Amino acid sequence: MYPQVQLHIAGEWRGSSSKETADVLNPATGEAIGSHPMATKADLDEALAAADRGFKVWRKIGAFDRYKIMRKAAELLRERADTIAKIMTMEQGKPLAEAKGETMGAADTIDWFAEEARRAYGRIIPARSDDVMQLVIKEPVGPIAAFTPWNFPLNQAVRKVSGALAAGCSVILKGPEDTPASCVELIKAFNDAGVPKDVLNLVYGNPAEISEYLIPHPVIRKISFTGSTAIGKQLAALAGLHMKKATMELGGHAPSIVFKDANVDKALKILSANKYRNAGQVCVAPTRFLVHESVFDKFVDGFVEISKNLNVGDGLDAKTNMGPLAHSRRIDAMEALVADAEKHGGELRTGGKRIGNRGFFFEPTVYTNLSLDSKIMNEEPFGPVSTIQSFSDDEEAFEEANRLPYGLAAYAYTESGATAAALASRVESGMISINHHGIALPETPFGGMKDSGYGSEGGLEAIEAYLNTKFVTKSGL
Prior knowledge:
The chain is of the alpha/beta class. It is 38% helix and 22% strand.
C-alpha cells in the first residue's frame, strides 16, 4: 500500500492549512496511487519559525551526539530498506533493485556525514606576537532550504539533509512532488533516531512559489538545489540578491569517450548499464558517446544489441531491467528529441517510440551520425535516448567533450597512461571517471563546473558549504 503523505512541520505530521492536495501517479500505470498536501504561505511561515527554533537547539548539541543520532538514522534506513524501496518504485518507476540500492546508499551517506560532524576542524594560526592567539572557528551557517528532484528522491535529499545536520544546521526540505513518500521515510528515520522536533521540516507544493518565498526569507541562511540548469540559474540569482550561500548541482550532458586502445567490451558493459539506469533519468548519465572510428562499428553493434535486449517494464517485476519514465512530461521530451533527430538526418539504430499507452514507457533508443545542431547533441536528454558519434583523432574528441556549457561528469576508456593524463587535465568537468564508473560515492566530491553548477555534495568539501569560517584573534594571554 502506498502511504499517506503529509507535511512535517514543527515535529508534527499534518496536511496543508488549505486542505489542498495533488495526485501522485504510478508511472508504470499512469494512475493515481495517493496524494500530497500543497503547502501554503502560512504553512511555510510555521516551518520557518520551527527551523529558527530548531537551529538554536541543534547547534548546541555536540558533534559527537549529532554523530550518534545520525548513525542511528542510517541503521533505521537499512532496517526499512525493503519497504522504502517498494514505495520508491511505486512512485518513481525504477526497478526494485535500483530503489533498494539507492536506499542502502542513502544510509551510507548519512554514516559519512555523521563521521564528518566530528571532524569539522578549526585551526590555530601562528601569531606574530607571543601574546596573541589566532583562532579559526567553524560554525553552522544557520537554517537551510533544500530543493530536491524526483529522479533520486532519497539520494539527493539525503546529501543535503545529512550535510546540514552534521554541521549543526536546521532544515526545510522542499521534497519532489512526483515522488514525495520516499522523502517522508527519510525524515521519519531521522525523527525516530532522535533529531529534535523543530530541526527537520518537510514541505511540498508549488515549487516556484515555495522557492520564491523561502530563499529571500531572513531565517534562511543557505540554499541547496538539485535540478535543471535553467531553474538553477533563477534560484542562484535570487539567492545572490539576498547574499545567501548556495550549492547548485545542475544539469549535465556527459561525454563518454572510447579511444582506439580501449577495452571495448568493458566500455560497453559499464556505459550501457549506466546509460539505462533509472531509464536514463540521471544527471551524471553518459549521454554523448564519442567513439574512435577504428572501434566505432564494434561499439555501435554491441550497444544496439544491449539496448534491444533490455526488459522494459514495471519496476516491481523482478525481470525488469529498465522501468518507465517518471511522468508524461518525459515522454513528450523523448518524442521531441526523436522528431528533431529525424529532422537532422540521424540514423536510428533501434527504438524511437513510446511503448504502449499505459504508463510512461519508452524504448531504449540509439542514434548515430547526428549533426551537431540537433537538439540531443546540445540538450541533456534525461531519458533512454543515446547518440553515438565517431572521431578520428584525440583532439577532435577533446574539442567535442568541451563544446557545450555543461561540465558535470565525463567518462573515458583507454589503456594509455598519457591519454588518461590528458583527460584529467583537458576535459572541463567536475568529475571524470576513466575505465570504470567511480563517481557519486559519499566520500568523494560531487559537483560540476560551468553551467552544471558549483559547490560539492560529497566528500569533505560538502560539509564546508554548511559552515561559516570565523577568525578570532585575542591578546593578553
